[in-house]
Write a structure and sequence with these properties.
binds adenosine monophosphate
Length: 481
């Protein structure tokens, strides 16, 4: 691995040098060959030792990043990588700089009361769901390797430990800016902003007000990202400012989950008691998070404080429009619409209402519409719900399609490329993780193979398309930290 270290070249207040703590018996659970190839990594005999943190590869400069964050609305001035250690940056085969980080690699200066470790369940969960998001075209950190440590960690009781090797465009969060802003360290904020612009958004440097351009770009990226989450029925569950990236990638898969039946108020996370991060709240909450980023940038956006505030507020005010636009564009594609009409948003909304009324499965309904668009009546697993509202919606949709230029076959093919058949359904993820905790990786591997081709609905993946039986339903998810 040819490491580079641009983040480590920032002043020492941005990070703390720390080596991973070796573990007893590293054993590879999963290795992402395709991602490794992208990064120019060759899997050698000691790969488990390297990705468990027992062997620090030549050229690595392990460090923990400093950050702060609002957790469920409450500001914590120091969080930081309490169990993740950045080994360095790699330039991938597309010329993109990517971080390689070990999550669960042992305590750091930011561990507070935590053990610095991760359990096998949450590690494999992040592996599965991040790879599913990637396969569905949703920007996300990636999973390169999951390694069992041969040690136990103590959560509710003892559980097997693991380390996740995670790859991201960077690991800079809204909370990283908050860390310096909370210390009234304007130079730190500026250095970080310059770093993010150089690394992610070099075009912002050409703008009249580069830090305003940075804010606007991040706001647009985050609005688009959350729209994509909603397109696939994803609920992040912990949208704290320390889990909102500057790169626009999804990060930190904790108690996240996917909708089965469509319910906009749905919450799975056991710690989200007020429903702050419910499915439908996500655009409003990401806007709240970006507003916290805006506050950190005010001092550097413009020397005139009033002008800075007005310009930053305009960005935050524009976010609901960007979110709605991104959502609508994606929904048009999902409904097979190649043209724009004023009534399209209402058409999409009324489909959701019809689904909600009969607790229809979000993923299956949209997938079934691909067949319906082709003039076939979806049946079996894909049979569409029957209700007066649903039937009326179909008539309305058919009328709308009649005004759209594509042939039925073209439309159906385009729809099948944006409406996943296979998502990592909560009950299948749960089954796979329970088996893995007991040493059986077969269900995990089979599920991983299925979610890697989400647009394939052949008979071999019907098991993964099937919604939960009442007894299989996952009602609550846990952080596991
Ligand atoms: P998360 O909920 O994973 O986004 O983490 C929130 C904060 O808690 C971050 O600062 C993490 O580094 C820290 N944290 C989570 N789990 C642990 C752990 N087991 N040991 C130390 N720090 C942790
Ligand atoms: Mg986090």
């Amino acid at each position: 691995m040819n490491f580079e270290h641009t983040y480590a070249q920032l002043p020492a207040k941005f990070w703390q040098r720390v080596d991973p703590t070796p573990v007893k018996a590293p054993r590879m659970l999963a290795f992402n060959d395709a991602l490794a190839a992208e990064l120019g990594i060759v899997r050698e005999a000691d790969a488990a030792d390297v990705f468990a943190g027992n062997v620090v590869p030549p050229g690595a400069q392990p460090l923990a990043m400093a950050y702060a964050g609002h957790q469920f609305g409450h500001f914590v001035p120091q969080l930081g990588d309490g169990r993740a250690i950045l080994l360095g940056e790699l330039i991938d085969r597309h010329g993109q700089r990517r971080d390689l980080q070990l999550k669960g690699a042992g305590p750091t200066a930011f561990s507070r009361n935590g053990d610095g470790r991760a359990a096998i369940g949450p590690v494999l969960r992040e592996y599965l769901i991040s790879e599913a998001m990637h396969a569905m075209g949703v920007p996300t950190t990636r999973s390169l390797a999951a390694v069992a440590t041969g040690e136990h960690v103590f959560r509710e009781g003892p559980v097997p430990g693991a380390v996740l090797a995670r790859v991201g465009a960077s690991h800079i969060r809204v909370g990283t800016f908050q860390y310096f802003a909370a210390r009234r360290d304007t130079d730190g904020v500026r250095q970080l902003a310059d770093y993010v612009i150089a690394r992610h958004y070099p075009e912002a440097a050409q703008a009249d007000r580069p830090y305003l351009a940075l804010l606007e770009t991040v706001a647009r990226r985050q609005a688009a990202l959350v729209a994509q989450w909603q397109h696939v029925g994803f609920i992040h569950g912990v949208m704290n400012t320390d889990n909102t990236t500057l790169s626009g990638e999804t990060i930190d898969y904790g108690p996240c989950a996917f909708l089965d039946d469509y319910d906009p108020g749905k919450v799975f996370s056991s710690i989200d008691r007020a429903g702050r991060y419910s499915f439908a709240n996500q655009p409003a909450l990401v806007r709240w998070n970006v507003a916290r980023l805006a506050e950190t940038l005010l001092a550097i956006i413009d020397d005139d404080g009033d002008a800075a505030l007005a310009a930053a507020s305009a960005v935050i005010d524009a976010m609901p429009g960007w979110s709605a636009q991104a959502w609508l564009e994606g929904m048009r594609a999902k409904l097979g619409l190649a043209t724009n009409e004023d009534g399209d948003e209402a058409l999409a909304q009324s489909l959701l209402e019809a689904m909600h009324a009969v607790a229809a499965d979000y993923t299956l309904v949209l997938r079934a519409l691909c067949d319906a668009a082709d003039g076939r009546e979806p049946d079996g697993l894909l049979a569409l719900p029957r209700s007066p509202a649903f039937d009326a919606w179909r008539t309305r949709w058919a009328g709308r399609l009649a005004r759209d230029p594509r042939t039925a076959a073209e439309r159906a093919a385009a729809m099948r490329a944006v409406n996943p058949a296979v998502i990592p359904r909560n009950h299948r993820v749960h089954e796979a993780l329970v088996a893995a905790e007991q040493g059986d990786l077969v269900p995990f591997e089979a599920l991983l193979a299925a979610i890697r081709r989400p647009y394939d609905d052949g008979p071999d993946v019907h098991h993964y398309m099937t919604p939960p039986e009442p007894g299989e339903r996952v009602l609550q998810t846990f952080c596991g930290t």
